[in-house]
Amino acid sequence: MEHTEIGVVHTTIDRADPEAVAELSKYGVATIHEAMGRVGLMRPYLRPVYPKARMCGAAVTVLLQPGDNWMLHVAAEQIQDGDVVVAACTTESEDGFFGELLATSFRARGCAGLVIDGGVRDVADLEGMDFPVFSRAVNAKGTVKATLGSVNVPVVCGNALVRPGDVIVADADGVVVVPRERAAEVAAASAAREANEEGKRTQFRAGKLGLDMYGMRGPLAELGLRYED
Asked: Could you tell me the keywords of this UniProt record (predicted)?
């Protein structure tokens, strides 16, 4: 799986360690992104289709053709409990690839949610089901089932490379991709970052200024910042 293929379904993939995935699920997208070295974010146009949507799981990837959702039906068979489906398209398309019926099918397979660089519909139903979806657009326009794509190949979704089995975390701040082989390392780094931020939070609550806590006064003075009455 070193390159993108058309017309193939890889039925065996290496998923991130489940314990590492569970640990990553404790942290927000911003924390994970920072802890990983400020990398891994998908483009910010991928937004939750309803408030409080959140997900974390290993990726089952889908490569779609524009206006065609056939491969999402094919992908359903490959979903294991806790997986997140990540769907990209061979070219930009905002058609409504996904709705309540496919969500029902995905949920029956144990799917934890969907990230799609395309459109979705039936948003009220998705919210009622509490089936998390992050999408490029909300669009009632229907799709066909006529052209082949692929399942479980590397895809680029929202400008981020996603390989089958990588960890996807999504919340109100966006979507981040954690390489499967780095899942445990990034989870540990996220925990350390959270602990560090709690210490800073305590100081802010006590009234300490970031100017002092971060040692900003010297560099600001060197750049010529002055205070005047």
From this structure: Lyase
- Whose tokens are 């309803």? That residue is 50
Joined together, the tokens standing for residue 60 give 């089952």
76: which 2 tokens? 């359903």
Mean pLDDT by 10 residues, the chain (229 residues): 80 98 98 97 98 97 98 98 98 97 98 98 98 98 97 98 98 98 98 92 95 96 96
Considering only CA atoms, which of 93, 91, 79 is closest in space to residue 102?
A: 79
Q: Which two tokens stand for residue 31?
A: 């924390």
Count of alpha carbons within 13 angstroms of residue 161, beta-carbon side: 9
- Cβ within 8 Å of residue 66, ≥6 positions away: 89, 90, 91, 92, 93, 95
The pTM of the full predicted model, rounded to 2 decimals, is: 0.94
CA distance 7 to 46: 26
Compute CA 114 distance to the chain's CA centroid, rounded to the nearest angstrom: 9
Structure tokens at 45: 């146009």
φ, ψ for residue 176 (rounded to 5)?
-125, 145
Instruction: Please name the residue ranges forming H helices in 86-153.
Output: 100-108, 123-129
Measured distance CA(174)–CA(134) in Å, rounded: 8
A 10 A CB-CB count for 220 gives 12
Residue 219 neighbours by CB under 8 Å, 6+ apart? none
Backbone torsions φ then ψ of 10, nearest 5 degrees: -90, 115
Strands (E) in the chain, as ranges, are 47-48, 55-64, 84-89, 96-98, 113-120, 133-138, 150-151, 155-157, 160-162, 167-171, 174-178
